[in-house]
Each structure stands twice: as structure tokens, then as C-alpha cells.
Design goal:
heterodimer, A: mainly alpha, 3 helices, B: alpha+beta, Rossmann fold, 4 domains, six-stranded mixed beta sheet, 29 helices, elongated
Chain lengths: ~60, ~800
Amino acid sequence: MGSIEDGLNDVYFDRLAQEESMDERIIAALQKLLIGADTLTPVSIVKAIKENLSEAAS
Amino acid sequence: MIKLNSIAIHEMRGIRTILLPFNARSFVISGDNGTGKSGVVDAIEFGLTGDISRLSGRARGNVSTKAHGPHVTHRSTPEFSEVTLEVLLTDSNAVVTLSRNMKSPGQYKLDPDTPYNRGIIDEVGLHPEIVLSRREIIDLIITQATDRSVAVQTLLKLDGIDKTRKALGTASTKLKDEAETASSTLNTRTGELIRHLGIEKLDGASVIAFVNEKRASLGLGPLDSLTDSASITDGLDDAALSDTFNKESALKDIDAAQVFFSTCVSTNEKTCESLVIDLCEIEENPSLLDLIDTAELVTMGIELVDSPECPLCDLAWDDIDALKEHLDEKLRNSASAVAIAERLIANGKILAGAARKTQSHTASIEGLPSELVSSNLAQSLKDWDAELEIFISDAASLSGLRKMQTQFSTGWPTIPPDLSTLILALRSAADAKTDQSAPAAAASALGIAGERFAGVKKAESSSATATKAADIAKVLHETYLIVSANVLESIYEVVQQDFSKFYKMINGEDEEGFKASFKQDGGKLELEVEFYGEGTFPPNAYHSEGHQDGMGVCLYLALMRQLLPNHFDFAVLDDVVMSIDAGHRKRFLRLLQSEFTNTQFIITTHDRFWAKQIFNVLDKPIGGVIFTGWSVETGPIHHADDEVWMRVDEDLAKNDVSSAAQKLRTYLEFLCSELADNLGAEVKYSADGSYELGDLWSPIVSRYGRLLGLGAKSAAAFDRSDLAELVKDRKSNWSVAMTRYGDENWVINKVLHHNEWANATAEEFREVVDSVKAVLSELRCHNSKCESWLEVSPRRGESHSLACRCGSVSLNLLTK
């Protein structure tokens, strides 16, 4: 049974996917944090953004 | 999701042993205060979730489920404390047995134990909000907007949304800070380069012009573009690059440093003033200081929570969520103090940036040849640089800023007293240095330009990456805010519609225009309600306590419908409508009946009239039990029909006629007062309202016989052969039951009426029990799905009908 939060996350990631500036790797990393097994903290979010930015650059 | 068929409770809270048959129907537990009703509520919650919320979570002090959940006599032997629930899974219609022991609250036994069944029970375990008490009503209605927001978010399981919002916000702030620092570094590096080049603004053409002029003087070919730092010095050998001193550039650096050092205090004067004001306020208001300290500590603590043990004080909590909620509440209480702390940190950040800029100037001087920089100046700069490093570190935290209050009052940074003189001496020494040859000056100028250009490029790259990261974090955060606001707004819209509708169902006769509105504002959820056309106000502004209680229950029901669409099958309402008068409570029951047809409600109340009202108003079959007393030794003394007979049988099996007689007498005394009321029996009035069994039994028996007679006459008068047949059957059964009862009358008189149990044997008493059962059986509906007691209507005046709740028995008592 889906919770309100699950429904919100679905809408959120749909909306992010439509953002032209948003790299899909970052969306995937954030999905892992929000609805996956990884822990969501400010530090983990910062790490996910930086890692995927440097991957995109390389 | 689920309904409950039964609960068996052993040695928990105020209960020793009890079995209550819910039969997946609504059920009323009534009894005076202190008779153990809440013990049943606690046991239901514990059985389903492994927790008792009134003993855990915020503001519960030293009370906890594990320590205080077991019966007081088993506080050191929690393994004796257990709940067994027979649970109907409404989706699959399967029945499972769920047992949970107080020794291991987090674990439960399930039979049959399948992944599907366990999944449902685990899901139910996430919903402690199935229990509503008056405490939760206060949190929903009679509270501050911030607390209401928390209560609503908790009930709707939106805590995760708040956590995500905060984490994204903090990440965004952190990356924004990093981007600002990177940008500041880029500005510093750019400033160093343009100072060296002697230009106003950095642009490619100016750099190329400077570089090519120097290259030309050295006989090197011109550059068309600047691709990397190496290209500026292309063609220069190592010997030419080894002299890093350039007199003109050095003088510019020294002059820039001198100007910066002499103006940096006044440049940041306003920032310092703001810091001093806030730091003074903190100092003058110790409670504010405590709140800020707490907030800072708790913020660190929340980050460290990874088990039910508090990382700040090592106190063991029942569960990790309760600990987090406790810490979150502390943070919420510190909101205004936190605002001051945030302003201080922001100002500290500005000064830290200025300190870094100061360091860049000290570095440019320290990089000059050692023969120019006096040992005093070198030492002074070294010491100051170390101080600035500490300053930058301290400026990042509240505790660090508080240490520097005096420094902010007297000006920052603490410029070494002889610095200006030492720098003037340095300038003189540099100026006095013999002019370099033109080629040497050009080569060193190119070397410095190349180095600083590389610094700019590196800072540009770092700044671009940091800005991009910050932009991404901002989009992630802002998008989440927009999406969550939209989702929550649509949810609150439906909730406020349902809430208003439910409330009007209870109070519509005089509040037809009632409307409620929610306004979400950051972490606050404002609730305002219409008051008799006079405008909208907070719910506790003008409405009575009874109306507020009604609002609380209505809001709860509206929220639960949102939380569990199509699955709101079960809820416990723990003494929640006691401030509502009888008329409005009746309408509340109609609300439950019409809007929540498939929900099983377990309702506790200390008001027997309300309990009776529930039975009378709700059409659907419901069960109930009345707790008539309580003691530590016995737990609740109660009268659940099935259980009374079972206990009497147990006593007789042990040949304990005394106990069996006592139980039967107590039960019949309770039951007969209900039956006398149901049937309109003519009981001799007692001013103190107490009636003995002998006062009630005969009037009931006589009254029922007369009612059957009236029913027979009416059936004949209206030529209703079907009703005549029904009455005939009932009269026949009644006659048999009464004959049997009459045969045992001598025993009943002795044993029940006069308590002369000593003269009866177990066998004789079993006959008494059976005869009483037979009589009582005739006073209820024979439909096994109903079995409700027959009642006359209306209760006052001439009775028009005798009926059960399901309609199987519906006798007209009037004749033409």
C-alpha cells in the first residue's frame, strides 16, 4: 500500500526528470537515497551531487 | 487492513487476565475511571505495534513501555506479560493469531506465519494512530500551529517528507556556502592577477597584451590565445623563471595589503555591530542561551542518532523514532533562539570570508624575498595568520563566535599593533632595491603572471563546479518544496472538506455554515474555523470544549480517511467525546454509522449512558463489556457475557460454588439493571439509584410476560399471522424457561437472592445456571448474528414496540 510520501516521491522524480539542467545520474543517486537502501542525510546528498558531477565532467 | 476478532491479555498494565470477544464488530468498553479500560487500549496498541504510546515518546519522562507495560506485580518479570490477538485480515479474509510478549516488544509470533500475513501485520505496526485519545485531540485542535503541523504530519506519516525537506535544504545551504567560498577565492585570485597586470578588469585581451609586451621584450613570439598557464612562459628557460621577484609587482602587492589592512575594520563594521547585538542579547537572557545551546547540541545529536540510545546522554529509549521525536521537539521549542543563532552564523560567515581575504594579502607579503621581509614582520605575519586561521574556524560555530564577543566590540581582526610600521619599512626596502634589468623584470613578470593566471583558472574551475553543485542542490530542494506543497495542499483540501462535512453532521443544526480552512506556512499548519457567521478564528477561540472535542474527532477521522483510503478498517476511540453532550454524541454515532460503515471501532467510555447510546444508535451489531471495579489483585471486574459463563463453569468444575454464585450474582445485578431499562420494567424506585437483584428480577420476568401478551393481542388485532406465530413460539419458549426456572427457584432464592451458597452442591448450582441462561436467552434475539437484548420503544410512556437490533424481532404492542 503506497503512502502519501511514496506518491509525493513519484511526482517529485517525474518533475526532476523534466528539468533540463538535471543529470539523470544525479536523479538516480537521489532516488537511491530517498526510496532505496541508502541513508538520506545532508552529507549523503552533497556526496551524491559531487560524485555525479565529477563523473559527468570525466 | 485488519479487524480484531478477540484479544487475550495477561499481566499487562492494570489487567491480570481478560479475554474480550470483538468478533470483528464495533465494541464498547465502559466503566468508571480507574477500572482498567485504558489497559485494554494499551494492550491493543502493544499487540499491534509493540509499543504503548502513552508510555513512550515525547515528554514521558522516566516511563517506558518495557519498564511499565507489565502488570505492576510483574515489573521485573515482563515475560509473564503478553497479548494475543485474533486478527481478521480484511483483504484476504484470513484469520491469524498474533502474540506479543513484553519481554521482546519488537518481536511477535504469528499463526499462520506467511510472508503475506507478516507483511500486513508489519504495515499495521506502522500505524499507532489507530488509537485516538484526548491527548491527540489536544495536539490536533487546541494547540499551536507548529505543534498541530507536527501532529498532522505524524498522523499522516509525513515525517519522512519533513526530514527529506530539511536534508535537501541543509545540503543546498552547504553547497551554496561552498560555492560562495569558491567564488570568493576566485575573486581573490583574480584580484591578485589584475593587480599584477595593472589592469582594472580581467579580460583575455588585456592579459594577452600584457603577456605579449613582455614576451616581445624578451624576443619571444606572441600568444594568440591563453589556453593554459604554461603558454604564458613558453620559451623561458628555468634560469629565467628562477627569479620570482618583480619589483613593480611587489610594490603593488605591498600597497594593496597596506590599504586592505587599514580599511578592513571599517568595511565590516556593520557586520560586527550586528554580531555584538545578538551576542549581548544571548548574554543578557540566559534562557535564550540555554535554548541555543540545546539546539546546537541537539542538532549534533540528531545527526549522530543510529540506535535507541541517546548519543548525548546515553539514556536508553524504547525505540529510535521516539528518541528522534524527543530531540526534534527540543529543536522546535528553540525556534526563536535558533533564528538568532542563524543570524550570528551568517554574519560569522561574512567575517570568515574577510579573514580569508586578509590571509591572501599576508601570503603575498610572506612570498617576497626573505632579505626584504624583516624577521619581526615575518613573525608578526606568521602569528597573525595563525590567529586568522583560528578566527575562521571559530566564526563557523556559535560557541566560537561567543568566545570572540570582546574582539567584535573592539574591532576585528586584531591587527598586530606594529604591522603598519613594519609594512612601511618593507615598502621602503623593496623600493630601495636596485631596479632589475629589463629582461629580468619581464621574465619575472611573466613568471608571476603565469602563476597567478593558473591560480585564476584553477579557482574558476572550482567555482564553476561548486556553483553547478549548488545550482543542482537548489533545484532539488526547491522542486521538492513545490511538489510537497502541492501534494500537501491537495491533501489538506480534501481533509478540510471532510472535516467540515463531518463536523456539520454533528453540529449542523446550529452551525450550518461551518467551514474550516488549513493554511500551511513553512513548518506551521494554521487551522481556522467559522464561528456562527462572525468570521473565522482559531478553533479554541470561541467554540466550547465540547465543540473542540468534536472537531478533534472529526479531524482525526478526516485524516485517517486520507491516510488509509479504503483501508480504514479499525480504530480505537479512547474516551474522546466526553465533553460532547448526549444529543451531539448521538449525531456523532450517526456519522460513524454512515461514513465509516466498514470500520470496526473499539470505543471506551466512563459514561454508561453514552455506552448505552452507542448500542441503541448504531444499527450494525456491536459488542461490549462493562468494567464495574478494579483492584491490583484482580484487574478489571467485568461482565462480558461469554466470559461470565465460562468463569462460572470453571468455578463449578473446581466445586467452588461460592465463587460461581458470587460471579453470577454480580453479573445478574449488572445485567438486570440494563434489562429492566430495556423492557421498561416497573421497578420500585430507589432514591440512591442502587438496586439489588431481588428488586429487579421479578419485575423483568413479569414485564416480559406482559409484553408478549400485548404482542399477541396486537398481532390478532392487525391480523398478522406471522407475528402471532412468532409470539406464540416465544411464549412457548418462555413458558418452558420459566418452568425450569421455577423448579430451581428455591436454589435461586437461597443462592442468588440470599447468598446461601453453602447449602448448594456444584451439581445443583449448575442446574441454576442453566435455568437462568434459559430465561435470559428468551430476552434476546435468537438470530445468532444479532443476539441483542430486546428493547421496548419508546422508553418513556406507552410502549409501542418490542424489537431487537437486527429486526428479526419487531413486535407491535398497540391494538386498534
